[in-house]
User: What shape does this take?
Amino acid sequence: MTHSYTSWGEQIQRSVIDRNIREAKQRKLDEFLEEHDYYFCEDCKENKPEKIDCSHNLSVADCHKNSCIELAWDVENIKLRHRSCHRKKDRSGLHFSNN
Ligand SMILES: [Zn+2]
Assistant: This one.
């Protein structure tokens, strides 16, 4: 993709999308640390020795497909998840893509 559309029909270039997502993830991490003092997985909340990723509730691909790309950099749409929890979530997302 070279560009996507917001829900109000504005065309956003890929480079802007990437930058906005990067900034949103950083904002998410900053806000999370400020609130909780440490990072944890918002799915299982277990203290596993595993890397924690910034994970989209509605994936960037779906934001693109559904023309609501602004959700890709909505901090509310980003959660911290273990890598394995992230994968589990993405797999279930495939099965329930119509939800
Ligand atoms: Zn987890």
In short: The pocket of zinc ion is lined by residues 41, 43-44, 46, 81-82, 85 (CB under 6 Å).
